[in-house]
From TrEMBL, chains A, B:
Residue stretches making up the D-isomer specific 2-hydroxyacid dehydrogenase NAD-binding domain: 120-292
UniProt xrefs under SUPFAM superfamilies: Formate/glycerate dehydrogenase catalytic domain-like, NAD(P)-binding Rossmann-fold domains
Family membership noted in the UniProt record: Belongs to the D-isomer specific 2-hydroxyacid dehydrogenase family.
Alphabetical UniProt keywords: Oxidoreductase
Lineage summary: Eukaryota, Viridiplantae, Streptophyta, Embryophyta, Tracheophyta
Domain D-isomer specific 2-hydroxyacid dehydrogenase catalytic: 50-323
InterPro entries: D-isomer_2-hydroxyacid_DH, D-isomer_2_OHA_DH_cat_dom, D-isomer_DH_NAD-bd, NAD(P)-bd_dom_sf
UniProt cross-references to Pfam families, sorted A to Z: 2-Hacid_dh, 2-Hacid_dh_C
Family matches, as CDD domains: HPPR
Name of the protein described by the UniProt record: Glyoxylate/hydroxypyruvate reductase HPR3-like
Length: 326, 326
């Protein structure tokens, strides 16, 4: 093992960013990466060992220590930069960062195409029962049970995009090619040809499918509740590739179990990695483990963006993907 | 049960068309449908009971008695029309029909959108491991095994369409919206902006993915063999929503098992409903039971087309979707 180069700029990592599964070596060649998970110290002691000197933190919304609250941030007197490996920044107290003059950089749109592809894949899967078919055939049921229920067509389905940002727009563009009819809600009206609504309940009333693409904020938390699901109706389908807490999970489960909506494709959950037991046995639900963003290509791009942001910071240059830049 | 109306035109059904699961009552109100599967007679006796009078046969490529060979057709001296509930007509001896002046009508493009949607769904599933993720989460593995392999991006993948008919064109149009790069082979060059190849081996060499969309004919049978698969290469993916016999199934299985290609999405097989045992345990393969065409919407359209063709025939009007019209 090479001697740690104390000349290299120091970066403390909080949470457990998936990028270290793939780009640990490359990042460690450029920066002195302080990894709590490789230390024998408990996290709080590891943090207090380095807190006085650390200027840059890399973080992810997953893993222990991933919530960058104001009390955690207070431990780092010299902190000037937080780089998160996620597009969302709901795990970072942005108000505190702004107050302290801490810059924040995110993964920006690096994952947008992959997440949009996955959302469309989940929707086709739920409508056309692909995972259920794969299970049926692999369990040897085809020669035994001949018949299979009819599925629903993708085309001409009325799809409401909840949050027409970078991901939502790409979902819309892909689904248009299938002949879906798109409308959306978003914080503001966008220069797109799709009907714009301001109320999610009204959007649900007019749609067969809702695809959740918005950030998790105080305004979007629990946005999708029983009332919205009932407005979507018995043929309704929910796709969520955003954040678990945007949906009232127990109310969604009840609607699915009681047949008040038709199905769901869920990549995110309230208490990851724990998925509510009731969902595991439902044939009209397709589940995945928060992997909508996880491709070789997006991780290569993420590595370049993360290390570019850190290099820019240490060279006093503008960040590549600032959320807050002071 | 209503008395069979002997005034209604008689239609003998061969094979076991799925449409009778859903539109039996409606068809039986318009025609005197002769169904071997509801008779206590063996099929050959059932046929000989009705063979002298039957002018119209409805058939499907699935089920016992589904092969309309010249020897079977010889049993029906007055046969003037065959309506198949499928887009493909490889189960009908067309040369014999032509010789005898028997008209043939098919499902034409009724299923094209649904089959294209399903093909795209299978490709996203194989690249992004959606069925595998669903299995992983539903088996409770997420909290136990944290990591999951990186997937491959859909966009910028080079996709070769094998057969740019109605289905192939719709697959191409959908995948373009994901940023895939499309090329194709077909019997003849089409007025499309995609590069055209005449040799499937050359197409495979230039592509990451082959989507099989062609009809099963003497020219396409076993078109995809080991040599083509090796040309596609280790990252290669095969999607087949056409017919099982277009691929040399054992050579495909060997390439999948030995990692000579990366994965497959298969809706059709050589000996349906039997799927080779080796495929059932592969995590990089998504399987379905010949359901790419199976939606409520396409079956409603199929019912209208089938009954429209039969009505036209008995009224001496032109068929709605003729393959052969005499």
């Amino acid at each position: 093992m090479a001697e740690p180069n104390t000349e290299m700029p120091e970066v403390l990592v909080l949470g457990r960013p998936t990028i270290f599964q793939f780009y640990d070596e490359q990042l460690s060649q450029k920066f002195r990466i302080l990894k709590p998970w490789e230390s024998s110290l408990p996290l709080d002691q590891f943090i207090s060992t380095h807190a006085q000197s650390v200027q840059a933190v890399m973080c992810s919304p997953k893993g222990i220590g991933s919530q960058l609250s104001s009390s955690l941030l207070r431990l780092f007197p010299l902190l000037r930069l937080i780089v998160t490996t996620s597009a969302g920044v709901d795990h970072i107290d942005l108000a505190e960062c702004r107050r302290r003059g801490i810059s924040v950089a995110s993964a920006a749109t690096v994952f947008s195409e992959d997440v949009a592809d996955f959302a469309v894949g989940l929707l086709i899967d739920v409508l056309r029962k692909i995972s259920a078919a794969d299970r049926f055939v692999k369990n040897g049921l085809w020669p035994v049970q001949g018949d299979f229920p009819l599925c629903s067509k993708v085309g001409s389905r009325k799809v409401g995009i909840v949050g027409l940002g970078s991901i939502g727009l790409k979902v819309a563009q892909r689904l248009e090619a299938f002949g879906c009819i798109i409308s959306y809600i978003s914080r503001k009206k966008k220069p797109v040809p799709y009907p714009f609504y301001t109320d999610v309940h009204e959007l649900a009333t007019r749609c067969d499918v809702l695809v959740i693409c918005c950030a998790s904020t105080d305004q979007t938390r629990h946005l999708i509740d029983e009332e919205v699901l009932l407005a979507l109706g018995k043929e309704g389908i929910i796709i969520n590739i955003a954040r678990g807490d945007i949906i009232k999970e127990m109310e969604l489960i009840q609607c699915l179990v009681q047949g008040k909506i038709a199905g769901a494709g869920l990549d995110v959950f309230k208490n990851e990695p724990n998925v509510p037991e009731e969902l595991l046995s439902l044939d009209n639900v397709v589940l995945s483990q928060h992997v909508a963003f996880l491709t070789e290509e997006s991780f290569r791009d993420l590595y370049e963006l993360i290390s570019g942001n850190l290099e820019a910071f240490f060279l006093n240059k503008p960040l590549l993907s600032p959320v807050l830049d002071d």
